[in-house]
Amino acid sequence: MNINNTDSIKLLVGLGNPGDKYEATRHNAGFWWLDQVAAATNSKLATDTKFFGIVGKLNAATDTWLLKPTTFMNASGKAVAALANYYKITPAQILVIHDELDLPPETVKAKIT
Is 98 a catalytic residue? Predict the structure, then answer.
């Protein structure tokens, strides 16, 4: 994915679980990916309690947001919905990155709905 060409994607979500217990587990693959996107684009992330997560803009020239929910994965919809509703982002404009226990490690699966 070219992270600088996000005409249709307005929200990049990296899923993971908060806390030291999960930090080095594959459950945090989405967090790791979002951290890499933020670093590659010099995007700044900060905790935002109204969106239940760590949030930033991809860069000043876009309306694309970055989100790492600070809820556990099974409650991450709360954070995604809060940010998406506030900025009027549709489900088709959201890209979610997460681990998948049904796939072998280091395997990537892309699906467009």
Answer: no
